[in-house]
Specification:
By secondary structure, this protein is of the alpha/beta class. The chain is built from nine helices and eight strands.
């Protein structure tokens, strides 16, 4: 009677691997095949010996099902462990909270790119299936390290990008805190400043009487969105900090107000910012 045995070794996720294998192999039992799953340990490893026999037995089917279980386990569980290990070993100079934040950034990047994730899942499944077609013994931890180097390198790249994102975000938050301090110590020069995005892509500032603000101390802060060399957001923030109004109201005019600009200024001028749904300034977009 045809018979096949595969020995699967692992250090981590032992119980989950055993459960998932049992669930997957039940489908073979339902087809009338004899399935035995036996567990033993050696040198810190847990080995699950899976044997299948019976009439209608097909070795490629068993290999594919076992490969599918291991693939899902790598992508859904091992990936998190690998990421945390990479961050812990390569960015040891960050404290635990910072490492946790970096991990969250990395996890978000991986989750956002579902196409790449599915491509790597298919690649892992293919490599595992090919390996099991010519081997009846596999240690998952070693297989990942030596046969999935492209996948592991991807995780290293994602971790590097996550560190960059973390540092940029931290610098941004520190910058916002500094600007908040400037706003708090600045004496308000106006009760209300209306910020209008004009049809030609430029910002214009108006006072509470809807008069254009264009005095000497603001002349250097006039912002033209069409000039790529000008950081319009920084200049607008500088102008508003100079005026330090008690209230800021955004009007989209004939254009679409950049969300990042509104968010940044809302962070700096906490509790002072609102948006207009429609008024004379919005309609005119002078």
């Amino acid at each position: 009677m045809p018979r096949q045995c595969i020995s699967i070794g692992t250090v981590q996720q032992r119980e989950l691997l055993k459960y998932e294998l049992s669930q997957e192999l039940q489908a073979l039992r339902d087809k009338g095949l004899n399935v035995r799953l036996r567990e033993n340990s050696a040198n810190g490893f847990t080995f699950l010996d899976c044997c299948v026999s019976g009439v209608g037995f097909a070795e490629p089917v068993v290999n594919r099902q076992v490969a599918g279980v291991i693939t899902d386990l790598i992508v859904n569980k091992w990936e998190n462990i690998l990421l945390k290990d990479i961050i812990r070993e390569n960015y040891y100079y960050f404290d635990d909270d910072e490492k946790g934040a970096i991990y969250d950034y990395a996890r978000k990047k991986l989750n956002l790119n579902q196409k790449n994730k599915e491509n790597y899942r298919l690649l892992i499944l293919q490599k595992l299936t090919e390996y099991l077609n010519s081997n009846n013994h596999i240690v998952i931890d070693g297989f990942i390290r030596f046969r999935l180097k492209d996948y592991v390198n991807l995780l290293y790249d994602v971790a590097d990008q996550a560190v960059d994102d973390f540092l940029m975000d931290r610098e941004y938050k520190e910058f916002i805190e500094l600007l908040r301090y400037f706003v708090e110590i600045q004496e308000p020069r106006a009760n209300l400043v209306n910020v209008v995005l004009r049809a030609d892509g430029a910002f214009q500032l108006y006072d509470e009487e809807c008069r254009a603000i264009d005095s000497d101390y603001l002349r250097d802060f006039m912002i033209d969105l069409t000039d790529n060399e000008i950081n319009y957001e920084d200049l607008l923030i500088s102008a508003l900090i100079t005026i330090a109004p008690r209230e800021i109201k955004f009007h989209s005019g004939n254009g679409r107000m950049p969300a990042t600009t509104v968010d940044t200024i809302s962070s700096v001028f906490a509790g002072r910012v609102s948006t207009c749904d429609g008024c004379v300034l919005c309609k005119d977009g002078k």
